[in-house]
Amino acid sequence: LFGTVEVGRAANVYLQVLSAGRDAARLGVRGGTDTELRALVTIETANLASPIPTSCTAGAPGMCITRGSSPGPSSVKMEVCYNHPLIVGIPAVLPNPWLLCSSTTMRVLT
User: Is 54 helix (H, G, I), strand (E, B) or coil?
Assistant: First the structure.
């Protein structure tokens, strides 16, 4: 029973992280600055148990912004990771905290 509750809570948090990342990437392709993107994610995830760091470290909680200009249209990639604390840890099944990450890339279409 606790496992079902934990996974349900994690799914809800993941959807918040995913939505915030998408909105930030969308703002980025419309000309938003990195500071504005980080502020948007912070505002949209304000109801989480702890704030998401604005730093970028691979494999750790935080926000990573990559602006690219490969052949073709430019793009903005927004990666958001959050350490989701579990109510009841399930050893050897779910790590506590559970690192939830989303990655969204949006291209600038002209």
Answer: coil
Evaluate the omega torsion of the peptide bond into residue 61 and state whether it is cis, within 30 degrees of 0.
Answer: no
pTM score, two decimals? 0.88
pLDDT in tens, 64-83: 999 986 555 689 999 999 99
Q: What is the pLDDT of residue 95?
A: 79
Strand partners, 84: 98
Amino acid letter for position 18: L
**Residue recorded with tokens 């995830």:** 45
Cα dihedral: 1, 44, 30, 36 (round 10): -130
Which H/E stretch holds residue 107?
A: strand 98-107
Cα–Cα distance measured from residue 104 to residue 66, given in angstroms and rounded to the nearest whole number: 10
For residue 105, what is the DSSP state? Answer: E
